Amino acid sequence: METIKDIIKGREIYTVESGTSVKAAVNYMAEKGVGLVPVLKDGKLVGVFSERDLVKRVIAKEKDINSTLVDDVMSTNLVIAKIDETTEQAMAKMKEAKTRHILLIDNDNLVGVLSVRDLLEIDLNQCKTTVEVLHNYIYSK
């Protein structure tokens, strides 16, 4: 069983600083191709800003994206997994919280973000491997 630590090895974390405007955060997210960015203040995790926050808390409330700060519209109810947890444990937490992303922590430091897509890809690869092993076992006689 693969741990989260194995999966995120070498991955870059895309974050924004507290005090960043929504417009700057959205442009950064678009540039990096991500749907969520953790928000840091003095290196500490204080929230996340996502596409969903943009839609529900900015656009739907007709706030100005240039003057609104991510601090005012970010989510602070965070779903977190420790780095040594399994992908199954992370997926269970995400399912319970009904979220598409989970933040990864090691000794109270942010070390990564996983999406449902990441975890589904891992699960699919594990299933393919199992099918291949079973196929080889059945047809090798």
UniProtKB/TrEMBL annotation:
Residues 7-65, 74-130 form the CBS domain. The keyword Iron-sulfur does not apply. Pfam families: CBS. InterPro entries: CBS_dom (IPR000644), CBS_dom_sf (IPR046342), Diverse_CBS-Domain (IPR051257). The keyword Phosphoprotein does not apply. Keywords: CBS domain. This is IMP dehydrogenase. It comes from Ignavibacterium album (strain DSM 19864 / JCM 16511 / NBRC 101810 / Mat9-16).
